[in-house]
């Protein structure tokens, strides 16, 4: 892992751009922390880090206030990374199916999601190896947001992740529903009830499939971009409960 830029943001947050091989990313840490801190991995949709930066940095600021580091990496075939022809074709097929007004077939969903999830999980695990080697980061580790199929696979594959906050989304391969039964860590799942691009029933079925004994579904009225501000407070409280060491009762 190499650091390529460094700057201090308002609110006592140190932001450093990183690269892991060909994979770019960003690491945010509380600048004044005097001991190793927990880490939240910030997932995001495949729109590119530049497009997602305003939302990611807002989440990173909140994590730093709560005493956590946070980090994100660019997804395969996204942003400034090399194009991935098979993924681009699957996206084009999906857009045509949606525009035609019919259901998106399982073969299109599998072609779009499964290769992306496989590669992304490998890269997230490599990033986690590198991040946890830094003296300022000590764990435990949480995962927040992103493509829900990536979050499911990462939760199954990565024992260092102890809690996850997931955003409900459509286009989930059937195999991911089976994998969800293997997820046993605490979960906080956000669902926008009127999300125009989300199959609500499929989201509810996936939530039901999770094997976690502690899982909470936070459903809010409104469309995809109508997430209420207090939803972030609820998610922050979830990670505070599961990532802070016992006895740390700082104000959230």
Q: What is the helical fraction, as a range of percent?
A: 40-55%
- How many domains in all? 1
Strand tally is: 9
Order of secondary-structure elements: EEEEHEHHEHEHEHEH
On the 0 to 100 scale, the average pLDDT is 91
> What would you call the shape?
globular
Radius of gyration: 18 Å
Terminus-to-terminus distance: 31 Å
The named CATH superfamily: Alpha/Beta hydrolase fold, catalytic domain
CATH architecture: 3-Layer(aba) Sandwich
What is the topology, as strand order, of the major beta sheet? 1-2-3-5-4-6-7-8-9
Which percent band covers the strand fraction? Answer: 25-35%
Please characterize this protein's 3D structure.
There is one protein chain. With 252 residues, the protein is an alpha/beta fold. The chain has helices at residues 49-65, 85-99, 106-132, 148-157, 174-180, 200-209, 229-243; strands at residues 2-9, 13-20, 23-30, 37-43, 69-73, 137-145, 161-167, 187-192, 215-220. Helices cover 40% and strands 25% of the residues. A 9-stranded mixed beta sheet has the order 1-2-3-5-4-6-7-8-9, sandwiched between helices. The longest helix has 27 residues, at 106-132.
Concise description?
This protein has 252 residues and is of the alpha/beta class. It is 40% helix and 25% strand.
Explain the layout of strands and helices.
Layout: E1 2-9, E2 13-20, E3 23-30, E4 37-43, H1 49-65, E5 69-73, H2 85-99, H3 106-132, E6 137-145, H4 148-157, E7 161-167, H5 174-180, E8 187-192, H6 200-209, E9 215-220, H7 229-243
Parallel strand pairs: 4-5, 4-6, 6-7, 7-8, 8-9
Antiparallel strand pairs: 1-2, 2-3, 3-5
């Amino acid at each position: 892992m190499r650091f390529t830029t460094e700057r201090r943001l308002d609110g006592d947050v140190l932001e450093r751009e990183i690269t892991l091989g060909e994979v770019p990313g960003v690491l945010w840490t509380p600048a004044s922390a005097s001991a190793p801190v927990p880490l939240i991995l910030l997932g995001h949709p495949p729109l590119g880090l530049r497009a997602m930066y305003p939302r990611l940095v807002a989440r990173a600021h909140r994590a730093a206030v709560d005493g956590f580091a946070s980090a994100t990496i660019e997804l395969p075939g996204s942003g400034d990374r090399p194009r991935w022809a098979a993924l681009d074709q699957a996206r084009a097929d999906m857009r045509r199916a949606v525009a035609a007004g019919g259901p998106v077939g399982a073969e299109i969903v599998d072609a779009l999601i499964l290769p992306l999830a496989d590669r992304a999980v490998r890269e997230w695990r490599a990033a986690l190896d590198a991040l946890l080697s830094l003296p300022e980061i000590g764990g435990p580790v949480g995962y927040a947001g992103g493509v829900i199929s990536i979050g499911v696979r990462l939760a199954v594959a990565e024992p260092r992740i102890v809690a996850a906050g997931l955003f409900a989304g459509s286009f989930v391969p059937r195999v991911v529903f089976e994998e969800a039964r293997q997820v046993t860590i605490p979960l906080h799942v956000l669902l926008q009830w009127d999300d125009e691009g989300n199959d609500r029933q499929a989201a509810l079925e996936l939530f039901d499939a999770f094997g976690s004994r502690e899982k909470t579904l936070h459903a809010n009225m409104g469309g995809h971009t109508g997430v209420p501000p207090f939803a972030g407070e609820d998610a922050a409280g979830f990670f505070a409960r599961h990532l802070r060491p016992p006895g740390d009762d700082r104000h959230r």
